[in-house]
Amino acid sequence: MGNINSQVEKPEDKKAETTKLPLKRRTLLKALAGIPVLGLFAYELLEKRAYDFEKKSKILKDLELDKIPLPSITPLSGGKGDLLRIGLIGFGNRAVTHANGLGYMHPEDVEKRKLNGTL
Q1: What is the maximum span of the chain, computed from C-alpha positions, in angstroms?
Q2: Whole-angstrom Cα distance, residue 90 to residue 28?
Q3: CA–CA separation, 38 vs 51, rounded Å?
Q4: Domain boundaries, the chain
Q5: Separation of CA 80 from chain center
Q6: DSSP letter at 110?
Q7: Per-residue pLDDT, 45
Q8: pLDDT given at position 53
Q9: What are phi and psi for residue 117, nearest 5 degrees?
């Protein structure tokens, strides 16, 4: 019977298990020691970005490229524009695949695909 009593859990043991922290103190201190290192890294990163931006600005100013306006993209007109002709010469058997990709198919291929239901 002495074995049965020793296996029965006591209420004090349950309290001790539930009050234990999942992290040990040493692990927490190690993690907190990394915070200043992270702060220093962030500070140095911001300094480097500012230095790079200043260097780029100086180069553009020295070459007088800062005065040149940026190119603007002209919007495409909704109407019909110039006709664009594409020619595929010298591609061998790949020319058929390229033409199919552009939307131009041989009439025989169109008929075959209509019959298959893949067109």
Answers
A1: 101
A2: 69
A3: 20
A4: 24-70, 85-119
A5: 37
A6: H
A7: 97
A8: 96
A9: 80, 20
Report the C-alpha gap between 59 and 3 in whole angstroms.
Answer: 84
Residue 9 and residue 96: Cα distance in Å, rounded? 81
Both tokens of 109, joined, read 């291929």
pTM of the model as a whole? 0.37
What's the pLDDT tens digit per position in 41-99? 999 999 999 999 999 999 999 998 888 887 777 766 655 667 777 776 666 777 778 77
One-letter amino acid at 23 equals: L
Among 27, 91, 47, which residue's Cα sits nearest to residue 55? Answer: 47
DSSP conformation letters of 10-74: PHHHHHHHHHS-SS-HHHHHHHHHHHHHHHHHHHHHHHHHHHHHHHHHHHHHHTT-TTSPPP-PP
Sign of CA pseudo-dihedral 45, 50, 54, 60 = positive
